[in-house]
Amino acid sequence: MIVSQVWGVRRARSYKWVVDFGGVDCAIEEASLNTVTRIFVVLQLVLALALSVLVVVFVSKQTNYRNEIVSTQRSAIAAYAALAKEKLMNSNLSNELATAQESASSAQRHLNSQVVSLQGKLADAQTQIAELQASNSAKSTNVSLLTNTVHSLNTQVADQTAQINKLRPEQLTLINQNAQLSRRVTELTNERNVARQTIQVLQESVAKLNHHLSVAMEAAKSPSNTMASSAAVLKGVPTPVTVNGAITKVAEYNGKMYVSCNLGSKDGVNQGTRLTVYRGQKYIADVLVQKSDATHSVGIVTLQAPGETVAKADMVMSGPGM
């Protein structure tokens, strides 16, 4: 039995149950109902009431359900659109991924070719390095030989230098002796020339002034005295210790030769000092110092070897016995 609407249940004044189903009254004798039937009737009433409540609730919420369904459909449509857009984006990404993979593959092939090329160059470089190492080894051997040769030459130079140092005093002695001999020869030559001039003057004086014999004899004696005094003045004195230097400048003034050298008062060279000029082991001239400072001096050439001329860079020397 299905009941669509229950309007009420009432109990009659008599001992009867009256049930109103949709305006139809059904009277049930109380005496004829048993306990099970009563329970069943009550359950039907309860179920009818519950169903009525559910129908009322369903009817009241039907509009909300429809709105929710429309909203759900719209959400589904939007989701389908988003899914389609996502599929399109995935398709584009797939195309881009394929393009990127192709580019990566091309780049990989290019890199592989470059790696092969670099490996070839590396092999060539290693070959060149091996060749250079072999060449360097040979050069190192040559350097060792050259170093040994240099050491040997240095030893020889040291020995020769020691020998030269041993021979240097003898050389200085020979130079001094040569200078003294050359100076003596020059002095004798000058004396001979002066004597010749004196004799010539005397002869002319005797021929022309025979009656002034006494005056001519006096005149003949005067040049010799003047020569002796001039020789004493121009001779000069050597330094107390042996010193060596070089001519730095040569100049001629009023028929006299002036020279300057790099020896000064700190070397014991002062005014009146005699310096001997030589070139190699050859005597050149004597110089009488006229003026000096701490490191330089200027003098005049007093004696000069025949055929020789003092020049810049000639060596000068002075010392005991010179």
Structure, explained:
The protein is α+β, with helices and mostly antiparallel strands and 322 residues long. 61% of the residues lie in helices and 19% in strands. The chain contains 2 helices and 9 strands; from the N terminus they run βββααββββββ. It has helices spanning 35-208, 213-235; strands at 8-11, 16-21, 24-29, 243-253, 256-261, 274-279, 282-292, 297-304, 315-318. The N and C termini lie far apart (171 Å). The model is unreliable at 1-32, 205-217 and 219-233 (pLDDT under 50).
Short description:
With 322 residues, the chain is an alpha+beta fold.
Gross morphology is rod-shaped
The CATH topology annotation of the domain at 179-318 reads as: Thrombin, subunit H
β content, as a range? 15-25%
**CATH level-four homologous superfamily name of the domain at 179-318:** Rod shape-determining protein MreC, domain 1
Query: What's the total number of strands?
Result: 9
Compressed to H and E, one letter per element, the order equals: EEEHHEEEEEE
Using only C-alpha atoms, the radius of gyration works out to: 73 Å
Classification by helices and strands: alpha+beta
Number of helices: 2
Helix content: 55-70%
Average pLDDT level: 77
Regions with pLDDT < 50 over 5+ consecutive residues?
Answer: 1-32, 205-217, 219-233
CATH architecture of the domain at 179-318: Beta Barrel
Q: The biggest beta sheet, please?
A: 6 strands, antiparallel, barrel
Major beta sheet, strand line-up: 4-5-8-7-6-9
CATH class label of the domain at 179-318: Mainly Beta
How far from one another are the termini? 171 Å
